[in-house]
Automatic annotation (TrEMBL), chain A:
Annotated Pfam families: Oxidored_q3
Transmembrane intervals: 6-24, 31-48, 54-78, 90-112, 145-167
UniProt keyword terms in alphabetical order: Membrane, Transmembrane, Transmembrane helix
GO terms of molecular function: NADH dehydrogenase (ubiquinone) activity
InterPro entries, sorted: NADH_UbQ/plastoQ_OxRdtase_su6 (IPR001457), Nuo/plastoQ_OxRdtase_6_NuoJ (IPR042106)
Protein name in UniProt: NADH-quinone oxidoreductase subunit J
């Protein structure tokens, strides 16, 4: 029962904050709502027994990326209204309608197909030599997923260099 | 004798020096010096060569300077022949005599010109001597040339120089026109000459004079037929007619008097115009084989002589009289060749060169003295002012009139005698001409030197003393003011005196047997006129036609009588009773007018040939303009029209298609282009629409069941 | 109140994703659009973690780690582009970023 209450509470928080992020007039407010949203998601991860991800979520998302956004907002330093100009040809209403329709359809699909595949235990529960969420994750990352892991690190390196190049004042 | 090639080359060098360097750098003295020195050198060489020739056993010498045209295979009548022309010069009695005449008289005239032309500005003076030297170069090439082609080089060259010198005062339209006329009329003759040369090569396969003569001697005499030899001779004779101013091509020679007087003396009296006679003599063997052409030559010669003499009777321009006299005397020479008396022709050629050059130079002296006045009606009494000129010209006139023992008497009587043997009618005409010759020459003398002075008065009219004083020490200052008639400078009278001596004694080389001589020149020249192979066999045949000495002397006496009558008539009409000549002119107005207008030959030529040519040219021009240009323009118009059609097609059909494709693309793309707004979010909407479609399809497939 | 199952999580995930999509499509401030994209990535992450939980298999969580890495890279490069663009055009309005058209 507590889990149910917790889940709905978190769900309302997450969705509400997400709506606030999208609708906020002030960009800084939007970022603050985003931070809170990320923190809620981290809590959700804890509920789902993914402690390491929860930590990563807090550290990387709420701590790193959002600070990055904040810094960019500071740097951009808008004088006028950010969204003053609106192109008459944009299809916002259609996009809104389509997005709602897709959500409804997905929800319908999920709700009506939920019985068929519920609680299928993994037949391939690999016997891991370590115990605990963090240890197992670490094990996986440094054994089976070593190469993707390294590729991800190269990706980050490239992104770093690219960001530096793009943000440099004089080329 | 091996240096005879230097004889023509020396004046050529002089001409090159004067022409290339002289016109810019040489003074008058240097230019005249070079010209006279080269001519003098040529004269000396000629004399040496001639003396050597006299001493030689075989009186023929050929010097070849090497190939001009290397052997070229060409078709002849006897199959393929080698067309080969060396730069060869031939010295034989005929050319020996000619080079003496050309260099001798040429040298004297060079000397004379250096004084006569002294009024010219420096450039014109040097140019004059350049031309004169060039003329001598070509003339000597002509007479020394050993083949027809080398001769032709000289032939054309003298024609060129004649043109240049007649038109020497080119700023005078009449002089320029006269030069053109001479050149064009000569072209007619040269055309015949060239055709003759072609035919000679085609017939004999060689162009060497001696070889042609030998070959021709082997052919039968064309008494009744008009064969290839006759054709050759006719063509060559056309060339000679053009160059030697015979009917019908004589019209250029009187006009050629527009040139400076020394030029008239050298080119149009002594040398170039005799080239035709020389050429016929050179080909004596050929002509001997064609009797029909010989008759033609004789007839043309005597008719020319008579006609020119009649015109000469009434001319008042002193040089025109001499010009017609020259034509007439050339007619005599052709008459001689026509009756087979080649040696007599050459003899007369020589004596004529002396006395006609003398007369021209004398007239030049008079003209000079009269400040370029040529009309005899404005002269008179000149013997007081210029005694030397008077005496020398008188000698010349006596010589041309045929008074013994002057040179003209011997040569002319030789011709008359040989003509008498051949044809009595021709003889009669020739004697009549001789009488006229005497008349018009003495008319000239009497009008010029006797009677009252009729010329314009001069500035300081202080009488005869002044003019007499002026005679000796004449200088270049003369040009600025005319002080009345006066004797010419010694550079001019000197040649006159030398030529006068020549005119006196030149005849003594040909004293006929009837008068106790041995006709040396005839024997000397004879080898040049017969083929070598025939020389000995025909020795006897030559002596066939013969009159007794008494009859010959009788003929001489008759012609002298005729000449004397002519002189007496002239004296009567122009000295004793000058008014009678005018009465005659009025009484016989018609004839007088015809003669004064030279039988209207020029007018006739103008009306027929010149007009015809011009008309033809104009017609052709019209054809050219209308038809050829029309065709060209039509082509152009057609091209433009088709281009226009093509342009329209291109513009509306081809471009239309291209534009249609473009328009279809543009219009067709409009609908697609509308989608390309550049708004990123619209693209995202499109992607979302894809997702929506995908999910919808899934949903329908899953739950509705398809 | 029923038990909370994976379906709940996936519906939550779908809703969060849809909110992100709406944000991307509707907002014109490019920074907020980027934030909406972060929301969508989070929705995916939730989905992955939920299923990993259900299947008791940590491979899903490994994917989340990679997604987070990619998100970090995306944020860095995207914000760099925004900065460069802003320096040239003095705007962050995506409607003015329309140079890629005819």
């Amino acid at each position: 029962m507590a889990e149910t209450i917790g889940f709905y509470t978190l769900s309302v928080l997450i969705l509400g904050l997400a709506v606030l992020v999208v609708t906020a007039k002030n960009t800084v407010h939007s970022i603050l709502f985003l931070v809170m949203n990320f923190l809620c998601v981290a809590v959700l991860y804890v509920v789902l027994q993914a402690e390491f991800l929860a930590v990563i979520q807090v550290l990387v998302y709420a701590g790193g990326i959002v600070v990055l956004y904040l810094i960019v907002v500071m740097l951009v330093n808008l004088k006028g209204e950010a969204e003053a100009h609106q192109d008459p040809r944009r299809l916002s209403v259609i996009g809104l309608a389509l997005a709602g329709a897709v959500l409804l359809e997905l929800a319908g699909i999920l709700v009506y197909s939920s019985g068929s595949d519920a609680a299928v235990p993994s037949s391939e529960a690999v016997a891991s030599p370590v115990q605990g969420n963090v240890e197992e994750l670490g094990w996986l990352l440094y054994t089976d997923y070593l190469i993707p892991f390294e590729v991800a690190s190269v990706l980050l390196l490239v992104a770093m260099i690219g960001a530096i190049l793009l943000a440099r004042r004089e080329v | 004798m091996d240096l005879i090639w230097l004889i023509p080359v020396l004046p050529g060098v002089g001409a090159a020096l004067n022409g290339i360097l002289g016109v810019r750098y040489f003074s008058k003295t240097v230019a005249a010096g070079i010209a006279c020195a080269t001519m003098g050198g040529s004269l000396l060489l000629s004399v040496f060569a001639f003396v050597q020739l006299l001493g030689a056993e075989h009186r023929e010498h050929v010097v070849s300077l090497g190939d001009w045209i290397p052997p070229i295979p060409l078709q002849t009548v006897n199959g393929l022949g080698a067309f080969e022309v060396p730069w060869a010069f031939r010295l034989d009695p005929l050319s020996g005599m000619m080079i003496l005449i050309v260099t001798g008289i040429g040298f004297l005239i060079h000397l004379y010109s250096s004084a006569y032309m002294s009024h010219e500005p420096r450039g014109g003076y040097v140019r004059f001597f350049c031309y004169l030297n060039l003329f001598c170069f070509f003339m000597l090439t002509l007479v020394l040339g050993s083949t027809f082609l080398v001769m032709f080089v000289g032939w054309e060259g003298v024609g060129l120089c004649s043109y240049l010198l007649i038109g020497f005062w080119y700023h005078k339209k009449s002089a320029a026109d006269a030069g053109k006329k001479a050149f064009v009329v000569n072209r007619v003759g040269d055309f015949g000459f060239v055709l003759g040369v072609f035919l000679i090569f085609f017939t004999f396969g060689t162009l060497d004079f001696r070889e042609v003569a030998e070959a021709a001697a082997q052919l039968p005499v064309e008494t009744a037929t008009f064969g290839v030899l006759s054709t050759i001779c006719l063509l060559l004779f056309i060339g000679a007619v053009g160059k030697s101013a015979q009917i019908p091509l004589y019209v250029w020679l009187p006009d050629a008097m527009e040139g400076p007087t020394p030029v008239s003396a050298l080119i149009h009296a002594a040398t170039m115009v005799t080239a035709g006679v020389y050429m016929v003599g050179r080909n004596a063997v050929l002509f001997s084989q064609a009797p029909m052409i010989m008759t033609t030559v004789a007839t043309v010669g005597v008719v020319t002589a008579l006609l020119a003499a009649t015109i000469g009777l009434v001319q008042t321009d002193i040089k025109k009289v001499l010009a017609y006299s020259t034509v007439s005397q050339l007619g005599y020479m052709f008459l001689a060749t026509g009756v087979g008396a080649f040696a007599a022709a050459a003899f007369h050629l020589m004596t004529h060169a002396f006395f006609k050059a003398l007369l021209f130079l004398g007239s030049g002296s008079v003209i000079h003295a009269m400040n370029d006045e040529q009309d005899m009606q404005k002269m008179g009494g000149m013997k007081l002012y210029m005694p030397v000129t008077f005496v020398t010209m008188f000698v010349g006139s006596v010589a041309i009139a045929g008074v013994p023992p002057f040179s003209g008497f011997f040569s002319k009587d030789e011709i008359l005698y040989r003509t008498f043997l051949d044809n009595k009618l021709l003889w009669g005409l020739a004697v009549l001409t001789a009488g006229m010759t005497a008349f018009y020459m003495f008319r000239l003398i009497f009008m010029t030197f006797f009677g009252e002075y009729r010329g314009p008065s001069w500035g300081s009219q202080n009488g005869d003393d002044h003019a007499a004083d002026d005679g000796g020490h004449h200088d270049d200052g003369h040009a600025h003011a005319w002080h009345g008639p006066h004797e010419s400078p010694s550079l001019m009278t000197g040649p006159l005196m030398v030529l006068a001596v020549g005119a006196c004694v030149a005849g003594f080389v040909g004293i006929p047997a009837a008068l106790g001589g041995d006709n040396a020149i005839e024997h000397f020249l004879e080898p040049a006129f017969v083929a070598e192979s025939a020389a000995h066999s025909e020795e006897g045949a030559h002596e066939v036609a013969h009159l007794s000495h008494a009859a010959e002397i009788g003929l001489m006496a008759f012609s002298v009588l005729i000449a004397a009558f002519g002189i007496a008539l002239a004296y009567h009409l122009y000295v004793r009773r000058p008014e009678r000549s005018k009465e005659l002119a009025t009484n016989w107005a018609g004839a007088h007018r015809v003669l004064t207008n030279k039988y209207y030959v020029d007018e006739a030529y103008n009306a027929t040939l010149v007009k015809g040519t011009m008309g033809g040219a104009r017609g052709l021009w019209t054809v050219d303009r209308k038809v050829v240009d029309g065709a060209v323009n039509g082509t152009g118009w057609f091209t433009r029209a088709s281009a226009w059609v093509s342009h329209v097609l291109d513009k509306y059909v081809v471009d239309g298609l291209v534009n249609l494709v473009g328009w279809v693309c543009a219009e067709g793309s409009y609908i697609f282009r509308r989608g390309q707004t550049g708004l990123i979010q619209n693209y995202a909407v499109a992607a979302l629409f894809g997702v929506f479609t995908f999910v919808t399809v899934y949903l329908v497939a899953r739950f509705v069941g398809l | 109140m029923m038990e909370i199952t994976t379906v709940h999580y996936t519906v939550l995930s779908a809703a969060l994703f849809s909110i992100g999509v709406i944000g991307v499509l509707v907002r014109r401030n490019i920074i907020i659009i980027f934030m909406a994209i972060e929301l969508m990535l989070n929705a995916v992450n939730i989905n992955l973690v939920a299923h990993a939980h259900r299947l008791e298999n940590l491979v899903g969580e490994v994917f989340v780690v990679f997604v987070i890495a990619v998100a970090a890279a995306e944020a860095a490069v995207g914000l760099g582009i925004i900065l460069a663009f802003f320096r040239n055009k003095e705007t962050v309005n995506i409607d003015e970023m329309n140079v890629m058209r005819w």
